[in-house]
Amino acid sequence: MCAAPTQGQTIPAGVDVEKETVINGRVLNVDGQPVGGAFVRLLDGNGDFTAEVVASGTGDFRFFAAAGVWTVRALSSAGNGSVEVRPEGAGVHTVDVSVAK
């Protein structure tokens, strides 16, 4: 069973965003409404699977990663979508993923 933390926009207490690279955002449908329950995958610069979380009921997701090139891909009954993000260092990097059929 997956032990992924509860997803949300609030960074957990104790996380030092001066040292951690955080990729977070929301999964949204074509109307801009949140898509809860989407499977959100983090792929590395080669397109290889790195991690997966389930978006919260409000479409929120969060990954702790490293600087580099990443693709965030969302898969849901409302459709699929992906977006590239290139964090250059520590901090919170926010990116929304739009999904469509």
Automatic annotation (TrEMBL):
Domain of life: Bacteria
Species this chain originates from: Nocardia callitridis
The protein's name: DUF1416 domain-containing protein
Listed InterPro entries: CarboxyPept-like_regulatory (IPR008969), DUF1416 (IPR010814)
Alphabetized UniProt keyword annotations: Isopeptide bond, Ubl conjugation
